[in-house]
Design goal:
Number of strands: 8
Number of helices: 15
Shape: globular
Helix content: 40-55%
Largest sheet: 6 strands, antiparallel
Order of helices and strands: EEHEEEEHHHHHEEHHHHHHHHH
Low-confidence stretches: none
Strand content: 5-15%
Distance between the termini: 51 Å
Length: about 290
């Protein structure tokens, strides 16, 4: 990896296995969007960013080296050897097809509380609505961090609210879950840093003491927010994919980096939704 300071910002080149579209638009984060000029803009925690792909890497526009090193280098997990991870996966034809379809998909290292709240909003929801709810949450209760931009609110800020305060977000019954999560994290009843270091089974159990956190949300928080790359979220699409493409496989079949494989398969399934749905209907009919 080569890092250069330029007049435009920080240029990072020679980073294998990293593409923005399958990484930022693969259902693991909700505050980035692609602009008409090809740039991606968004916010992570309290950090706004505009970046674009170049012929040999990425350009982090308008930020200093300190900001890049202190936050974005870790957020994009730039020091992890993803080519070695991918090379270690089972030599399965369907998995390799998914990986070829989503080359460069990485697992972002997001902040744990933001990930927890985001995936509580994700339940029985679609991506555009999730993005809208999170944007309204940040505008209502986050701190301003730039022109028209707001950071993600802290656990303490949300813990002090009521369900009536959350009503303008139009998040419905999920509001009660958000408040329970915020209060447990703010009080230390659930310490996310401690949870991240627990054996995976204990970590799952600890997260599920939060109202509304079931197995799928717990896996999402572990994978996307607590750095547990062995976590393997199973929503309806992944359950269909496992049944259709990987009969006899379990999440453990993909090894210690199962979550990376899961993300590639999930991205493939989202882009081939009609085919997956049709195959599932035929399988049940048969």
């Amino acid at each position: 990896m080569v890092i250069e300071e330029t007049r435009e910002g920080i240029r990072v080149s020679e980073v294998p296995w990293l593409e923005l579209e399958p990484t930022l638009d693969s259902g693991q984060c909700f505050r980035f969007r692609r602009e008409e000029d090809g740039c991606w803009t968004g916010v992570a925690g309290q950090h706004p960013l505009t970046l674009r792909e170049t012929s040999d890497g990425l350009l982090f526009i308008g930020i200093a080296r300190e900001e890049f090193e202190g936050f974005w280098r870790g957020y994009f997990d730039l020091d992890r050897d993803y080519e070695a991870i991918v090379a270690g996966f089972p030599d399965d034809e369907r998995l390799q097809e998914c990986l070829r379809f989503a080359p460069g998909v990485r697992i972002l290292c997001q902040e744990g509380f933001e990930t927890l709240i985001s995936f509580l909003f994700s339940q029985n929801n679609n991506v555009p609505r999730i993005k809208g709810i999170i944007e309204r949450l940040c505008r209502s209760f986050g701190d301003p961090i730039g022109e028209g931009l707001y950071g993600f609110p802290s656990p303490e800020r949300l813990a002090a609210l009521s369900e009536e305060d959350l009503a303008p977000l139009r998040c419905g019954w999920r509001g009660a879950y958000v408040l329970d999560a915020a209060r447990k994290v703010a009080s230390g009843t659930v310490d996310l840093k401690t949870v991240a270091a627990l054996p995976i089974g204990e970590a799952r159990q600890a997260l599920q003491t939060i109202k509304g956190v079931g197995p799928k949300v717990a896996e999402c928080v572990l994978l996307y927010g607590l750095g547990r790359l062995e976590a393997f979220p199973l929503d309806v699409w992944m359950k269909r994919a496992m049944a259709q493409f990987f009969p006899g496989y379990t999440p453990e079949s993909f090894g210690p980096y199962a979550g990376v494989a899961q993300q590639a398969v999930f991205h493939y399934c989202r882009r081939h939704a009609a085919q997956i749905r049709e195959n599932d209907t035929r399988r049940h009919a048969g």
